[in-house]
């Protein structure tokens, strides 16, 4: 198995799109830290990566908790030595119609989709600064981040926030860093 000495983290990668992204990165030679809140699914997925001979490990965490995101980056760097790519993939849909959605569901969706993206980005960016490297941060947005849909009103609002963070990240210059 060839490696390219680059390291990636993909949040919410026990299944779905996150797993597919992580598999592609590993296939392309990245060392990959997969991550999810679902420990059982993550354990099974890690075994698949190991069976394919990919340089990989797994971290159980909740993207909406800032301390989990910091620990995720710290553990990855301890295991693989550095960080080059951080994919803010974990996300959930709120499907309850706007008029009926309750505080718990609304809060959970914003906590995971928006706060999770902010906390993941902060943790990764701090590591890039420490390494004096540029690094890449990739956010899972959605067409719902650019248009609004009747059934997805509140989910759309979270993904519009993610879209705004994409724009911010593209423009942001770390004070004192040479570009
Ligand atoms: N599937 C689509 O058609 C689609 C379209 C547009 C955007 N997206 C976005 O792409 C991303 C992935 O979507 P998907 O369809 O693969 O979702 P999915 O539900 O299949 O997978 C999401 C993964 O994230 C994990 N997760 C959920 N909450 C978490 C948390 N708090 N911390 C850590 N992990 C958590 C889940 O356990 C799951 O493994 C999401 O951000 C979603 O909004 C998906």
Primary descriptors:
single chain; 179 residues; alpha/beta; Rossmann fold; 5-stranded parallel sheet; globular; binds nicotinamide-adenine-dinucleotide
Give an overview of the whole structure:
The chain is globular, with a radius of gyration of 16 Å. By secondary structure, the protein is an alpha/beta fold. The chain has one domain: Rossmann fold (3-Layer(aba) Sandwich). It contains 5 helices and 5 strands, in the order E-H-E-H-E-H-E-H-E-H. It has a 5-stranded parallel sheet with strand order 3-2-1-4-5, with helices on both faces. Bound molecules: nicotinamide-adenine-dinucleotide (NAD). Nicotinamide-adenine-dinucleotide binds next to helix 1.
Compute the number of strand runs.
Answer: 5
Cα-based radius of gyration, to the nearest Å: 16 Å
Structural class: alpha/beta
Cofactors, ions, other ligands: nicotinamide-adenine-dinucleotide
Overall pLDDT metric = 94
Characterize the biggest β-sheet.
5 strands, parallel
CATH class descriptor: Alpha Beta
Major sheet strand order: 3-2-1-4-5
What is the H-and-E element order?
EHEHEHEHEH
Basic shape: globular
Here the CATH topology equals Rossmann fold
What proportion of the residues is helical, as a percent range?
Answer: 40-55%
Number of domains: 1
User: CATH H level: which superfamily?
Assistant: NAD(P)-binding Rossmann-like Domain
Nutshell version of this structure?
The chain has one domain: NAD(P)-binding Rossmann-like Domain (Rossmann fold, 3-Layer(aba) Sandwich). Helices cover 49% and strands 13% of the residues.
